Amino acid sequence: MKGRILDRVVAAEREHRSVALATDLATELGEPITVREEGHHRRISKQRALIKSLMAKSLQGDIRAAVAVLSLYARIITDSPDDHQPIEAHELQILRRFAPRLLKSLQQD
After folding, report:
1. Predicted pLDDT at 60
2. Angle of helix 46-59 relative to helix 2-30, nearest 10 degrees?
């Protein structure tokens, strides 16, 4: 019994640290920095600067940078922002009411 409780506490702490890390990373990437492009100084987010840097390296032939850019792009176009959100009760009710109509219309085609 104590082992299960301890496992739950450890898992909860790990999840909390993961959320905190994600928040910290998002905050850090959102902070502005000054970069120099074509002789002009511009303020852009660190995230944008990182992407620009990876893109420039990949266009110069850096295979690792190209793989990083392409895998980020693939992840973005395949992940839906709502994939990690649980379905709420009212949404589930709508789906239950709509699903039979949808199935029926698909069978008619």
Report:
1. 94
2. 80
Instruction: Retrieve residue 27's tokens.
Output: 């905050």
Rounded to an integer, what distance in angstroms lies between the CA atom of residue 55 and that of residue 60?
9
Tokens 């909390």 sit at which residue?
Answer: 16
Distance, in Å, from the CA atom of 66 to the CA atom of 64, rounded to the nearest integer, reads 5
DSSP annotation of 31 reads: S
pTM value is: 0.54
pLDDT in tens, 21-73: 888 999 999 999 999 999 999 999 999 999 999 999 999 999 999 999 998 88
| Residues 6+ away with beta carbon under 8 Å from 68 | 54, 58
Strand ranges in the chain using DSSP code E only, listed in sequence order: 32-37, 40-45
